[in-house]
Amino acid sequence: MLRIRYRLWIEKDGRPVLGKGGAELLRAIKEEGSLSAAARKLGMSYVFAWEYVHRIQTTLGSPVVEARRGGRQGGSTTLTETGEKLLRLYEEAEKAVEQVLRRIMGEVTL
User: Fold this and answer.
1) Residue 51 phi, psi dihedral angles, 5° rounding
2) For residues 34 and 2, what is the distance between their CA atoms, to the nearest angstrom?
3) Least confidently predicted of 39-43, 48-52, 68-72
4) What one-character DSSP code corresponds to residue 61?
5) Pairing state of beta strands 65-68 and 10-12?
6) Nearest alpha-carbon partner for 52 in 39, 66, 61
């Protein structure tokens, strides 16, 4: 079976901001409402996840998450408006690329 493979990422000034792993992390934060829960869900350490988010924010120059320290109820982490927009941009780009590739593959017979 023939397949076309690709890697997609968003850059700012030639520096990578968000790729597949980062999009998965932002999506998990959005779904779980917690960085630690998102990290657990994806099988990564909290420190790795936090450093990943920090790299995205540093490169982008804008916060993509807002963390609230917890007490008894625990903390929470949510995407900022910038984080939501960044994730949406990645997802829309990925969907568009996949649609084009499906169309191209549908036209090819070998």
Assistant:
1) -65, -35
2) 39
3) 68-72
4) T
5) unpaired
6) 39
Q: Which pairing describes strands 76-79 and 65-68: parallel, antiparallel, or unpaired?
A: antiparallel
Report the percentage of the chain scoring pLDDT > 90.
84
Output the pTM of the full model. 0.90
Q: Are 39 and 48 in contact (CB under 8 A)?
A: yes
As its CATH architecture, domain 10-104 has: Orthogonal Bundle (1.10)
The residue count of the chain comes to 110
Cα distance between residue 95 and residue 52, in whole Å: 23
The arithmetic mean of pLDDT across residues 29-36, rounded, is: 96
Q: What distance in Å separates the CA atoms of residue 104 and residue 34, rounded to the nearest whole number?
A: 39
Q: Give residue limits of the domains in the chain.
A: 10-104
